[in-house]
Input
Amino acid sequence: MKKQTALVTGAYRGLGLETAKQLAEKGYSVVLTGRNTEKGKLAAQKMQSQNLDVHFHFMDVNNLGSIETVKDFIEKKFGKLDVLVNNAGIHYDQGHKATKPNWKIISEATNTNFLGAWKVVATLLELIQKSEHGRIVNVSSGAGSLQDMTPGTPAYSASKAAMNVLTIQLASELKQEGILVNSVCPGWVRTDMGGGAAPRSVEEGASGIVWAATLEDDGPTGGFFRDGKEIKW
Ligand SMILES: NC(=O)c1ccc[n+]([C@@H]2O[C@H](COP(=O)([O-])OP(=O)(O)OC[C@H]3O[C@@H](n4cnc5c(N)ncnc54)[C@H](OP(=O)(O)O)[C@@H]3O)[C@@H](O)[C@H]2O)c1
Output
């Protein structure tokens, strides 16, 4: 089989970095993207020194032009995209209240966590359609589950619930083409966002993301998973 290519957004630290590493270790050519070129290049170089096929490219998911530039890069270098991991995320607005809305935080969370992911999919879809095994993973959160969310993170929860809507809509539109689209919650993970008290390592959190990114052709689509097991919407 021709070597497969994967792109991870927001990937020079945290879960994105570990997801990029695990995919590269599985033999994927990985395009590690992020909005800090210096840190992104360093992260990619470190993995290249371990003989992993990782390429950094600048991408701010809120900047359509930067997504289009990455599309051109992938088209020229690889011709197609097999796996897209929408990992970039911000603003776990713990302690905030829906009754006292902070519009700046709400709008930034919506733009990055929801609209950003949508822009990346829409721009790269043509390349994913060229793959015979297209996979899209939206890195969501239990905080975005309508049935399971707890109060206290209104902007973040709303943005991740909206991301889950995107998963369901995309999955049904792309099912006939064999492109599998799923939401994954990595659990509570020790990263800059998750904090040091979180019970899970990045390796544990990323493994559920990589599971959804590497599903067999008869794997599920339009689902919400943690550790490969279905969770409530
Ligand atoms: N950690 C947890 O417990 C947990 C639980 C459930 C879900 N998640 C989800 O998992 C994903 C990764 O989170 P994490 O814990 O690894 O957080 P993190 O360490 O804070 O990393 C977030 C990443 O997203 C990037 N990012 C933010 N805005 C961006 C933009 N506009 N364009 C491109 N990249 C952008 C950040 O880059 P900059 O340095 O440029 O900001 C960073 O690389 C997120 O979607 C998060 O919501 C995390």
Q: What stands out?
A: The beta strands are 5-8, 29-34, 54-58, 83-86, 135-139, 180-184, 224-226, 229-230.
